[in-house]
Amino acid sequence: MANPGYGKRPAPGQLPRRKGDFAHLPRREAAVAALIDRLPEGAAMDAKTLAKLSPDYGQAACRTALNRLHDAGHLRRFRECVPAAGGGRRWVTYTCFSRTARDDGWWERFRAGDVVEEEAPGPSPAAPRPAAARPTRSQAYAALAALTRAADRLALSAADCAALEPLAAQWFARGAGESQLIRALTAGLPTPVHCPAALTRNRLIEKLPPELEPVPTRPVLRVMECAVCGVPGRPEALPGGMCRDCRGEPRPPEPYGLTASEVRARVDRLRVAARTHERITCT
Fold first, then answer.
1. Which of 52, 221, 233, 252 has CA atoms 20 to 30 A from the CA of 266?
2. pTM for the whole structure
3. Structural domain boundaries of the chain?
4. Structure confidence at residue 28 as a pLDDT band (50, 70, 90)
5. Could you give the CA distance from residue 52 to residue 49 in angstroms, rounded to a whole number?
6. What's the confidence (pLDDT) of residue 127?
7. What is the 3-state secondary structure (H, E, C) of 102-166?
8. Minimum mean pLDDT among 41-55, 64-78, 129-143, 198-212: which range?
9. For residue 94, which phi and psi values (nearest 5 degrees)?
């Protein structure tokens, strides 16, 4: 296993594992992909670790297979800024593996956090239908039903709990807990309580907590890494998971770059100006 936060992460929306998932790959790449697919989340999947787990291929072969899997769209390396245990934030590097080959557009949407989950295949018609589950009560209904145990003077019926359930649900929607709700409804009860349902309704309305201020969501800071040299960059700058230099493409000329002869001419002029300034200062 890799260090916490690092290592393998499965891609979202994958279909269940089935025979022939990697039949479109060459034999070596298919074997390495099947090995990675069986690794648990958070496992180390560098070439050295894969070579130890594979009886047939060494580090060089596993490194080449990883590059080929990048080209086929099965994995990408990312750097992500996450909260650190002692405070602050730290950068972690992990490899996202997809059993289904993805194109560059899908990986860009994944980096931006805009990936639509794929629907898993439904059960076969011959599969037995599960037995009908007993309906579960909401947290608001359960809290109202617990009032009788907290204060026997607030004995509510099932119909009362169902009628007051929407009002109690507003408390939980505003961040209140069950203990806070029960304390507010049972504190300072009169003796006797003639109508528990009416008293509970009034307290649910009058003591309703204020609405919570929305917490701004912080976007995930995530960049992709080159499969060969590890340089970070945006997915559109790393087609196929590799940077321009590793793909062997020439760099575009800089808009205001100087040639070698122009640089030498400027340096010569600066030297002449410096000598002239020294002569003037000495005289």
1. 252
2. 0.50
3. 1-113+220-271, 139-206
4. very high
5. 5
6. 47
7. CCHHHHHHHHCCCCCCCCCCCCCCCCCCCCCCCCCCCHHHHHHHCHHHHCCCCCCCHHHHHHHHH
8. 129-143
9. -140, 165
